[in-house]
Specification:
Layout: E1 4-11, H1 17-27, H2 31-39, H3 43-52, E2 54-61, H4 72-92, E3 97-99, H5 108-122, E4 127-130, E5 133-135, E6 141-143, H6 151-160, E7 164-167, H7 173-180, H8 192-206, H9 209-212, E8 218-220, H10 231-245, H11 253-259, E9 261-264, H12 271-281, E10 286-287, H13 297-306, H14 311-326
Parallel strand pairs: 1-2, 2-3, 4-7, 7-8, 8-9, 9-10
Antiparallel strand pairs: 5-6
The structure holds 2,6-dihydroxybenzoic acid.
Residues 10, 27, 62-63, 188-189, 267, 291, 294 line the site of 2,6-dihydroxybenzoic acid (GRE).
């Protein structure tokens, strides 16, 4: 399929090479290749896109990124630097690249202001945040965005009418030590990433963020971070037990998925799993993505291009849903 759109696609700052090597050591079999690819927001990426029929990529700063920085001033300075860097990449290839804002999430008003700057000055298409913000004197605290203090931020997101991508990061501090330290191979895609994002997103549901901000659009990757497979059970327990006990969210979990939540195929190229998600959620809430450079263009695109889906479903997920959600400009093969 030509003109695909991909939106969980990471870059780093070349000057943070050492941090990239550390992260690559945890997740990349070929650390040199990974470090080269993630630092590129030009020719290497464009060549892969051309080879594999990806017309447009929404760039985002790699995990754990700014969410790993517990000093609020440093976090904000890095976010601004990253956004200025991403803006230059987009300005060089506006018909191939867009960007998500990178945000320090220490302070809701500051995060809102940086998002507003990126959207209004740079034309960024939303924000991508790596789960909870590390905070506190030694980085052991975690800031969630599901409480009332964050309403000012969510209000800005919906005023600007841009989506918010909730991306995973690695477990840290006490949580890491208690849950994961003795099970290190489960950190990342096998379990901890989905564990973190599903907790955070379901916290937003049950703490009423989507009731207070009914137009808010949140995207999660990896075919929904395990939540779609639990929809029946979550629904049963919310509706039949938790609401009678006091859970106050207004809609059912399926309604939030219908009205507020999107999933992407990033890093999860399984046909039966996608078919299951389409049965549960329908094709209007699913978006193609790769998860480059943690996953390869060929694994994602060869799988996608060979999928026996109806043409209109394939066009929706591969391109048209993203075009509408992000109000994309014309890009390579955008009408193919
Ligand atoms: C990511 O999407 O950021 C990611 C990692 C590490 C491993 C896999 C992965 O940061 O998808």
């Amino acid at each position: 399929m030509l003109g695909k759109v991909a939106l969980e696609e990471a870059f780093n700052l070349p000057r943070l090479h050492e941090k990239t090597r550390w992260w690559a050591g945890l997740f990349a079999v070929d650390a040199d290749k990974h470090a080269t690819e993630i630092a590129d927001v030009g020719d290497i990426r464009l060549q892969y896109m051309d080879q594999h029929g990806v017309g447009y990529t929404i760039l985002s700063y790699t995990a754990p990124g700014v969410q790993d920085i517990w000093n609020p001033k440093e976090a904000q300075a890095l976010a601004v630097e990253v956004n200025d860097h991403a803006a230059r990449a987009v300005q060089a290839h506006p018909d191939r690249f867009g960007a998500f804002a990178t945000l320090s999430m220490h302070d809701p008003a500051e995060a809102a202001a940086e998002l507003r700057r990126c959207v209004t000055e740079y034309g960024f298409l939303g924000a991508l945040v790596n789960d909870t913000q590390r905070a506190g004197p030694d980085g052991d605290d975690m800031i969630f965005y599901d409480g009332p203090a964050w309403d000012v931020f969510w209000q800005t997101v919906t005023d600007l009418d841009v989506p918010f991508y909730l991306h995973p990061r690695n477990p840290t501090g006490t949580i890491h030590d208690r849950l994961w330290a003795d099970r290190p191979w489960l950190i990342g895609p096998p379990l901890s990433f989905a564990h973190g994002v599903s907790l955070h997103l379901l916290g937003m549901v049950t703490n009423g963020v989507f009731d207070r901000h009914p137009r808010l659009q949140v995207v999660i990757g990896h075919l929904g971070e395990h939540i779609p497979f639990d929809l029946w059970r979550i629904n049963h327990w919310f509706e039949d037990v938790k609401k009678p006990l006091g859970l106050a969210c207004q809609k059912t979990i399926r309604e939030y998925f219908h009205d507020n939540i999107w999933i992407t195929t990033s890093g999860h190229f399984s046909t039966p799993t996608l078919e299951y998600c389409l049965t549960e959620l329908g094709p209007d809430r699913v978006l193609f993505s790769i998860d480059y450079p943690f996953e390869s263009f060929s694994d994602a695109c060869d799988w996608w291009d060979a999928l026996p889906l109806e043409d209109d479903v394939k066009r929706k997920i591969g391109r048209d849903n993203a075009k509408a959600l992000f109000k994309l400009p014309a890009f390579k093969d955008s009408e193919a």
